[in-house]
Write a structure and sequence with these properties.
Number of domains: 1
Family: Belongs to the bacterial ribosomal protein bL28 family.
Distance between the termini: 18 Å
Order of helices and strands: EEEEHH
Pfam families: Ribosomal_L28
CATH architecture: Roll
Protein name: Large ribosomal subunit protein bL28
Shape: elongated
Largest sheet: 2 strands, antiparallel
Keywords: Ribonucleoprotein, Ribosomal protein
Number of strands: 4
Strand order of the largest sheet: 1-2
CATH superfamily: Ribosomal protein L28/L24
Radius of gyration: 16 Å
Strand content: 35-45%
Number of helices: 2
Structural class: alpha+beta
CATH class: Mainly Beta
């Protein structure tokens, strides 16, 4: 499974580990993802999404219906 947020599209970034001697080696910064179930009352069903924790904060603030509407407008959810 890919490590991409299904609502925001966040994914891993690439950067460097930098040692004390300034030696650089490649590393990845993974997105902070969780698997979460949500109930959508308009459709009367449960959905499971793999989302980032920042997307979870957005859902808590604006609601799952508005977050899904915003994600569909951005092209992340079908």
């Amino acid at each position: 499974m890919s490590r991409v947020c299904e609502l925001t599209g966040k994914k891993a970034m690439v950067g460097n580990n930098v040692s004390h001697a300034k030696n650089r080696t490649k590393r990845t910064f993974d997105a902070n993802l969780i698997k979460k179930r949500f109930y959508i009352p308009e459709e009367d069903q449960w959905i499971t999404l793999k989302i980032s924790t920042s997307a979870l904060k957005t859902i808590n603030k604006i609601g799952i219906s508005a977050a899904l509407k915003r994600a569909r407008a951005n092209g992340f959810v079908k």
